[in-house]
Amino acid sequence: MANPQSNLDELMKDPKAAGLLKNKALLQSLMQSPDTQRLMELLSQNAGDGLNTAAAKGDTGALLGMVRQVMQSSEGARLVQNISQAVPKEKK
User: Fold this and answer.
1) Is the dihedral of CA 16, 10, 57, 4 positive or negative?
2) Could you tell me if 19 and 72 are in contact, meaning their C-beta atoms sit under 8 angstroms apart?
3) What is the pLDDT of residues 9-59, one digit of tens each?
4) Residues 21, 17: Cα–Cα separation, whole Å
5) Ordered DSSP codes for 1-66
6) 12, 13, 46, 48: which has the highest count of C-beta atoms within 10 A?
7) Residue 12 and residue 52: Cα distance in Å, rounded?
């Protein structure tokens, strides 16, 4: 079983992910947004217990697969796009 801490360590190596994880106010805002809440509802409807299992195991591959599946619907794609646009772009 994968260790969630090791996945966090991997995320922290990505500058964009690390920046987001360090910005607690933005992260909190994203987590509480209506788009994120609806996306979580869609993921739960489509994946059922698989979502909780993958999250508990830190199985990012399975989680990404679930998000891709939800994104095949127009609503899911719109939600992911809205959430993505809410994240500040990296300055060059």
Assistant:
1) negative
2) no
3) 776 777 777 788 888 898 899 999 999 999 999 999 988 888 889 888 888
4) 6
5) ---HHHHHHHHHTSHHHHHHHH-HHHHHHHHHSHHHHHHHHHHHHHHTHHHHHHHHHT-HHHHHHH
6) 46
7) 22
CB within 8 Å of 75: residues ≥ 6 apart: 38, 42
Indicate the length of the chain as a whole number. 92
C-alpha span between 60 and 67 (Å, rounded): 10
> Any idea what DSSP says for residue 72?
T
Q: How far apart are CA 21 and CA 83, in angstroms?
A: 15
- Indicate the pTM of the whole model: 0.72
Is-contact 41 47, C-beta < 8 A? no
